[in-house]
Amino acid sequence: MSDTARRFLLGIFVLGISGVNAELLLLDHHEDLSQLIPLVLSAIAVVSMTVVVVRPSGPAVRAFQAVMALFLLSGMVGSGLHFKANIEFQLEMDPALRGMALFQKAIRAKAPPALAPGTMIQLGLIGLAYTLRHPAIRRGGSLDSSEEKP
Questions:
Q1: What Rg, from alpha-carbon coordinates, does the chain have?
Q2: pLDDT tens, residue by residue, 43-94
């Protein structure tokens, strides 16, 4: 992968994580422990990403990849939690709802948006794409100062 493409992916990742964190904070998405997960993961991602950019090494890239895998997992779990909350709410509103009608009401609910945690999946995939064939992994160690840091 070219340095330009890697920088472009890094820029998308930084913009994405900034936007997601701003939105989560504005929506007070920190009422319980499960709501803190994307915020904590984002903080860890920023630290690990900074290490990869400033001091690229195989272990640093692998740690960032592990955090991105946690992003994927958190997105899937978050979507499940949002959907479950929507199902429960819809059943409180209309206990007779079943099947496709219940599914449609729950998936289209605005609060919490059932698919919003998919953003964590997208960011995780962008982060993993950034590390694809990363020079620090190919060499099995740190980049020396003569090599460009993507």
A1: 19
A2: 999 999 999 999 999 999 999 999 999 999 999 999 999 999 999 999 999 9
Rounded to an integer, what distance in angstroms lies between the CA atom of residue 131 and that of residue 125?
10
Amino acid identity at 7 = R
Q: What is the DSSP string of the chain?
A: --HHHHHHHHHHHHHHHHHHHHHHHHTT--SSHHHHHHHHHHHHHHHHHHHHHHS--HHHHHHHHHHHHHHHHHHHHHHHHHHHHHHHHHHHH-TT--HHHHHHHHHH-TTTTTTTTHHHHHHHHHHHHHHTT-HHHHHTSPPPTTSPP-
The residue extents of the domains of the chain are 3-136
With a CB cutoff of 8 Å and minimum separation 6, the contacts of 7 are: 150
- In whole angstroms, give the CA distance from residue 150 to residue 57: 12
Residue with structure tokens 């900074």? 50
What's residue 141's pLDDT? 54
- The 3-state DSSP composition of the chain as helix, strand, coil percent (nearest 5) reads 75, 0, 25
